[in-house]
Predict the structure.
Amino acid sequence: MSDTPEGFAAVAQAADLAPGSMIRVAVDRLPICLANVDGTFYAIRDVCGHRNAPLSRGTLIGPHVECPLHYALFDMRDVVGAREALERSLLIAPDYAFSRKLMSSVPPHKDADVRSALQAIASRRVLRLTKRTPYSVRVREQLVKLGPCVRSDMSQVAHALGLSVRSLRRRLEAEGETFNAVANEAAAIIAKHLLEDKHKSIQEAAFEMGFADASGFHRAFKRWTGVTPRTYLEGRQRSEAEDAEDSAPLQSSGQ
């Protein structure tokens, strides 16, 4: 007599699916992506609306599976949300072709902020294509997403990544990192973004970071980055001025 509960179908042995891995199985000929997230098993239909890409060939990031073609993320814990995400992915715009001349041309204006943001996105995607994203990167991204007013809470970050606190600590240690060190990196990123807002003073940035006065923020920022907030802003201003000079059109001195 089968040990499979009524209403369920046996598709694999638990021992065949290691934590952090995915496999493709079939239930009544329907392809299913089965994942093991730290001992908890999740299942989702193994197809993304983008060219019917098999999600099981994507990347498992905590409880999220990333499409291997257009990097959409599906939360395997949220059946309704996953279904809506799959439906949204059907609306992906068709491919476009750009001329080689246009793609090779030098942009008339430089924007250090945009360049930095695009480099960060490209780096993350290269990591996902070549290997699993390090947990230190995932933790830093999660803390930045939580914003400046949220204190570093390892349990909250671990939950968001689908891990226990102990598992997250162990993974960070395996990468030679600690949660506090990564939290400081995230705090530095958030603080820099606040300082770069020309409508905010250093005092206002300090307040948004949760400091009662600017002196405490100055000490913390220097500990995170090695420079004071004012020194950082002066360096940014010099860099922007140099970029403006480089992108300015050459003036003719014709008589």
